[in-house]
């Protein structure tokens, strides 16, 4: 018996040694340390005086409520809400799921013809979250009210979602404000935008003072982070913290509850990645500003860094993203106080849902040499943070997004989004194409032909005027009939359009997006080209690219300078920023310290095990 115990001691001691070695071994990844590079945005650095308010009020001095939170979405054409159809718009058009099955079912992956990368659809989503968030009624209509539904009928013989007796796809309607005539009779609905309209980096800082304050450390102008081996990530809310800002999709995942300026940041890993990048960039800027200006207060450092991050997001949008789509605006002239920046319902629910057709079914992930780091399905990248927190941080995904050519902007939706959104068919699976159609109707957006007329474009009398693709024109005819080719859902009409030369867009979508971004720019006194406090760094800002933000704030050392176009060949990566290398002396000192710590740990563990077994032997002898 006693010999058996001795063997137990030896085995336990050996296990302690192995465990100690594992504990003291260096991790496979380390915190990000970049090689030194010149300070950025230094010229004319002064304490900021004029900047965006947290909730967007007071930006335009002559119209202080323009762009503020809770202002109503605008209209380019009159609303089509029908009081006889529970205030749904375009209520005479066919069932959205049937349209989706007929028009949006993807026959196969069709890559973007100009080689746009996945960063294109990702930035489209990020910038949409920057300027618009229309909330649904679910959980927001009080204790006595029931949320309105616009559920979509699913036929019993639906090829994917069919079930005996048929079923319904759950769709909650958007929050609204009744519009009345002079007699108080309800004549329509409008929908509030719950965030600021401005491109003011609200995705990073929030659209309320309370959210902004929660995200700050109030030390050195910095934002809160959570520390991870692969670099800082978004801060994590304590479950007991009742002041923590609400985040969407919390019920879909048991993973970390990261908190960001925008509540939708945790929707999928790629979106979260952009939030992390600009969080790190803010803190990098704050550190540099504080070092150069030791007498500045926390508030002054914070507002200067915030102003620069907002300017970076503006630059990337206007100098990279929009041109990558084929939109080339006239040069900025001067702020025009009469220009209303309000986001329209047509833009929010139609034009910028185009990105849903550009999302493929796979997230690529890559090492620095661009070999696979374990690709994953789109479905597995939603409602989870684990691929970032447990599988190498944000860098593998960034490399993969820059490598991957996105699907074309067309009427086709990927399988995961069209049949598996929120789950598999019969277990929460939904159809994003059908939901996008229904959301446009919920908001009363006018039909395709009316939208063209409002934008000054020619009327449509035949589907062949929309598309030269006979398969698509035939599917439009089957879905909607041939009586009024202009009387179709605006989203479907715009997605079906032939693209303009050197563009990812048809002419209607191009006109709608152009209208929105011209007004956002020209009606904003703090737009970076108009902001007097940024005059001396305007050129430096104008030449900043998303690739620069990536290289400064990740361990990635090489990437293509224009990440909005896919690049697969590592030899063609033309922007570089090396990581710092620790000196041999530092490495040696760390190695010695680790060895000493490890030996102590082994010794203490062994003594504890032997004392425990010896005590147990003595008790048995008694």
Note down, in words, how this protein is organized:
The chain has 19 helices and 8 strands. A hairpin with a 5-residue loop joins strand 3 and strand 4. Helix 1 packs antiparallel against helix 19, helix 3 crosses helix 7 and helix 6 crosses helix 7. The N terminus and C terminus are likely disordered. Helices cover 38% and strands 4% of the residues. It is globular and about 70 Å long. The strands form 4 sheets. Strands 1-2 form a two-stranded antiparallel ribbon. Strands 3-4 form a two-stranded antiparallel ribbon. A two-stranded antiparallel ribbon has the order 5-6. By secondary structure, the chain is mainly alpha-helical.
Brief account:
The chain is mainly α and 622 residues long. It is built from 19 helices and eight strands.
Helix segment count?
Answer: 19
Number of strands: 8
- Segments where pLDDT lies below 50 for 5+ residues? 1-30, 582-622
Distance N to C terminus: 15 Å
Strand arrangement across the biggest beta sheet: 1-2
Main traits of this protein?
622 residues; mainly alpha; 19 helices
What is the fold's blueprint, element by element?
Blueprint: H1 2-24, H2 96-104, H3 118-131, E1 152-154, E2 167-169, E3 177-180, E4 186-190, H4 202-205, H5 209-215, H6 269-292, H7 298-325, H8 345-349, E5 362-363, E6 376-377, H9 386-389, H10 395-403, H11 415-419, H12 432-442, H13 448-454, H14 470-480, H15 490-496, H16 507-522, H17 538-542, H18 546-553, E7 558-559, E8 575-576, H19 584-621
Antiparallel strand pairs: 1-2, 3-4, 5-6, 7-8
């Amino acid at each position: 018996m006693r010999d058996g115990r001795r063997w137990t001691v030896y085995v336990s001691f050996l296990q302690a040694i192995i465990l100690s070695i594992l504990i003291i071994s260096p991790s496979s990844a380390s915190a990000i340390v970049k090689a030194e590079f010149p300070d950025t945005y230094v010229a004319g650095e002064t304490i900021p005086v004029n900047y965006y308010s947290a909730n967007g009020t007071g930006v335009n001095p002559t119209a202080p409520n323009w762009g503020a939170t809770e202002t109503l979405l605008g209209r380019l054409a009159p609303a089509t809400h029908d009081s006889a159809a529970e205030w749904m718009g375009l209520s005479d058009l066919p069932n959205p799921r049937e349209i989706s099955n007929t028009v949006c079912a993807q026959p196969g992956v069709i890559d973007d013809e100009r080689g746009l990368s996945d960063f294109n659809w990702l930035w489209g989503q990020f910038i949409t979250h920057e300027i618009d968030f229309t909330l649904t009624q679910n959980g927001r209509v009080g204790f006595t009210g029931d949320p309105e539904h616009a559920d979509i009928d699913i036929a019993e013989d639906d090829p994917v979602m069919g079930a005996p007796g048929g079923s319904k796809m759950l769709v909650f309607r958007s929050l609204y404000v009744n519009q009345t005539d002079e007699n108080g009779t309800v004549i329509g609905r409008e929908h509030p935008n719950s965030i600021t309209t401005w491109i003011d980096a609200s995705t990073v800082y929030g659209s309320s003072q309370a959210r902004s304050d929660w995200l700050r450390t109030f030390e050195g102008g910095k934002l809160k982070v959570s520390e991870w081996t692969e670099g800082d990530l978004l801060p994590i809310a304590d479950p007991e913290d009742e002041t923590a800002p609400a985040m969407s999709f919390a019920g879909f995942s048991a993973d970390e509850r990261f908190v960001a300026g925008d509540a939708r940041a945790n929707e999928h890993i790629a979106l979260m990645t952009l939030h992390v990048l600009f969080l790190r960039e803010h803190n990098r800027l704050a550190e540099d500003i504080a070092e150069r200006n030791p007498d500045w207060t926390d508030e002054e450092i914070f507002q200067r860094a915030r102003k620069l991050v907002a300017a970076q997001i503006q630059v990337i949008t206007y100098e990279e993203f929009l041109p990558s789509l084929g939109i080339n605006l006239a040069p900025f002239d001067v702020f025009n106080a009469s220009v209303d920046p309000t986001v329209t319902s047509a833009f929010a629910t139609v034009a910028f849902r185009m990105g849903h057709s550009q999302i493929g079914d796979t997230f690529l992930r890559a090492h620095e040499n661009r070999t696979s780091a374990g690709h994953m399905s789109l479905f597995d990248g939603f409602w989870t943070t684990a691929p970032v927190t447990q599988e190498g941080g944000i860098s593998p995904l960034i490399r993969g997004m820059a490598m991957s050519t996105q699907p074309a902007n067309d009427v086709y939706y990927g399988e995961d989004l069209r049949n598996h959104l929120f789950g598999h068919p019969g277990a929460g699976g939904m159809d994003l194409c059908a939901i996008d159609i229904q959301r446009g109707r919920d908001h009363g957006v006018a039909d395709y032909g009316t939208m063209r007329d409002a934008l000054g474009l020619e009327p449509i009398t035949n589907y062949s005027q929309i598309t030269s693709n006979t398969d698509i024109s035939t599917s439009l005819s089957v879905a909607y009939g041939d009586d009024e080719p202009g009387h179709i859902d605006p989203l479907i009409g715009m997605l079906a359009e032939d693209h303009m030369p050197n563009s990812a867009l048809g002419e209607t979508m191009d006109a709608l997006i152009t209208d929105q971004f011209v007004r956002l720019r020209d009606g904003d006194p703090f737009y970076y080209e108009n902001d007097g406090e940024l005059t001396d760094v305007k050129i430096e800002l104008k030449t900043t690219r998303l690739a620069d933000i990536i290289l400064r704030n990740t361990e990635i050392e090489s990437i293509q300078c224009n990440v909005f176009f896919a690049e697969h060949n590592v030899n063609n990566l033309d922007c570089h920023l090396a990581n710092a290398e620790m000196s041999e002396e530092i490495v040696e000192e760390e190695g010695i310290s680790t060895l000493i710590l490890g030996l102590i740990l082994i010794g203490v563990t062994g003594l504890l095990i032997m004392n425990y077994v010896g005590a147990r032997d003595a008790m048995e002898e008694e």
